[in-house]
Amino acid sequence: MSTLQQRQQARQLRHRLLLSAPAMAMLGVFLLVPLGIMLLVSVLQGGDYGGVKWGEYSFEAYVSFFYERDLDDSLVFNTDYLQIFQRSLWLSVLTTAGCLLIGFPTALYLALQDEKRRNLLLFLVTVPFWTNLLVRVYAWILLLRNGGLVDSGLGLFGFDGSLGILYSDAAVIVGLLYSFLPFMVLPIYTSLEKLDWRLVEAAFDLGANRRKALQRVIVPLAMPGIVAGTLLVFIPSLGNYIIPELLGGGKSLMIGNLIQLQFGTAHNWPLGAALAFVLLALVLLAMLSYNLRFRQPAMEGHA
Amino acid sequence: MNRRNPLWRFTGVRPTAWLFFAFLYVPIVVLVALSFNGGQSATLWNGFSLKWYAAVANDPEIVRAAKNSLIVASLATLIATILATLAALGMHGRTFRGQTLMGGVLGLPLLIPEIVTAVATLMFFSFIGLKLSLFTILIAHVVFCIPFAYLPIRARLQGMDPRLAEAAADLYASPWRAFWRVDFPLLLPGILSGAMLAFIISMDDFVITYFVAGAGATTLPVYIFSAIRMGISPKINAISSIILLISILFVALSYYVGQRRR
Amino acid sequence: MTLRRTPLALSLLLSLGLSATAHAAGTLHFANWSDYYPPELLKKFEADTGIKASLDAYDSNETLLAKLKAGGGSYDVVVPSDSFIEIMVADGLLQKFDKSKLPNLKNLKANFQDLRFDPDHDYSAPYLWGTTGYSYDSAKVPGGVLEESWKPFFEPPAELKGQVVALNSIEDLYIPAALYLGVDRCTEDPKEAKKIQDLLLKQKPMLAMYNSDGTIERMAAGEVVMHQQWNGAFHRAHEQRDSLVYVYPKEGVHVFIDNFAIPKDAANVEEAHVFINWMLQPENIAAASNFAKYNNAVEGSENFMDKALFDDPAINTPQDKLDRLRPFQLCSPKALNLRTKVWTKLKK
Predict the structure, then answer these.
(1) Do C63 and B211 touch (CB under 8 A)?
(2) Which compartments is it annotated to reside in (chain A) (predicted)?
């Protein structure tokens, strides 16, 4: 490799770093520094009614994630938080899978339209979300409740009786799907939109059946979009608490509620911060293992 | 490009898409219908009335909150999308040391529960003595909008040849022009998707906004969540319907302008 | 009567006098729950005093406290509930009133003159107050009438399974459970807390849900039969459904009082005093009551309150039930920690 080439490459790299710099600076100052403060909060002694006592360190918060003090003040293993984490994880997995199932064909359909129609439909995917989350959830309550609009609708088709899914996990899934679908559809669409359809036609000409064309050409192309969409659906739904509260009947806590609780009624900021970092560690661990397995960084693909 | 392609033969694609749009719009129809409710309640029908629109018109706080929301969401979307586009371009191409870490930082706002970001950001602002206002809301919104704009753009870039722009840079004298002529049109669907996701995320945020809002900087979600204690009234549906109308006008206008240009 | 009227007329004069000076200085940032303060009343305040007022929103006492603790909030007047006044005072988050600017504090009813969380009104003045009892639909319960006790709520008859809703907050559930069991609500004894936990766990399968919002609609529509409810919400539901009944359980019912207070870093302290004083006039506070459907603490406001509201025993507690009202009590961090534990176990 010549020095000229090396110099050119170095220049290019500098150029690219410069392009990323504004976003990195923004996140560095207004996210990483505040998170540093939070990390400190998680190892401080909590104040009596919220806040922290500066200068008094304690690892109580991390200990209490796994252990609780029994009546005689001895530490016993505590599964409460783990159970809450597990339930949230499961709901998020279901939501992500559902979004993928509905979102992929929809994105394919969008990508197949001519340009004018495509952009219009794209807007139509997001227009409902200009309204507020709470009113959307209230509309769902109206639809799903006993004798509600879904029941009446089913009645028209001759189904009698009631679906009865409001205030159950099924309603939570419906609500989460509704909230997160655009976050799956749009990224997949952006990946598919650049697909050269002649390739697909060629595949058909060569006698490939639909499944093979899908498997060999379309899905690989959509993969970056699927990964991006999965991240945008899975992680935010993990921390969501409003939908489970309102549509699920509030009978069980989610990670989001649990952390919210610590900064609110429980007045336990260190535990709230610690829970957030445990969650962060878990998600990062999951991504790391995904990377090792598939040899492609989840956040960053090699070009 | 031939759009009458064999993919139409894939069964289920078109019905799923129609089902998707029905799923998306049924609650919206319900929501708008209820804004004309004569009764007090957001879930019980009680005859037709326009009184909630009058109530919106007579409540300066809710109108101001809606304005604040639209201002913050538009600006945050604009800034976050520009930052995310630049970052996506910078991250595209031959891998370098620290790239994965940088990618992680770009996605980090997704990973932190809202309440934690909210309290942390407020503590930081008060440490550095930044006075809370609409501006502090904007900063916080840009931060959490970045990954929503970044990931679709990044997905769009993946699989594209990084040398495209470089080659173009050789042909045209300035790389800036190369960007506008070559990269930007190619990236546009990604940028558009990213911007739209950032916008709706910003429009809906409540927890972070509440914490970093200064006096007089209440946004619509903060107003609405605060109304829960007294019970959500159809006034909220009315203001939502008005915003919906604005968005539809906006879409129609851009569609019309797009056609004129052709 | 004359005795009461004199300070009133005097204070009116005083506030008029104040308003003359207030014309020069200008703004007030008032933060409250949305729809808990009538927009027209704020306009009237602006007209009366010349102060330009804006209304900001927050969703709960907890988030307000967290925000003030983290160093935020440039509000001039906020409306925290009783327990939070005491915490905020202890943490130095509130300003001491200049009582020479609040002559209307005299208008407070006798039983609101001396409140436990702020005995001399050094930091707070009551806005509206209410009770957290429960309501039921007399047309749908067995026998048409239930015992005036927490028993039907915590241990509902089998017919009501899935027809009962509890409020979704620790405090709203833990306190009545403690009252029902005769346990100290601020107990630091895990064994006592366990009793409460057992009661709540036993109640859980009987409940349709835990939910603090939409309580009015659910009762008005007859979606459920029994609902733990704030009295103001009950009043609204009752307007739409005659057969509803509000219960003051004999074991005691929790009273909450929301209060005006001035945060430490308020910018417009002068205007804040003018506003609080103005709100303590019977006519103005009555307008707030009529709007929010909760009772207030100002003597003479009854002359301006809607008759239907004032005559509702759920709003204006009858004399013979006054002894059932239990004011707030701030518990030690250790006791609150036990509460959180019970809540987490209940919902794990």
Answers:
(1) yes
(2) Cell membrane
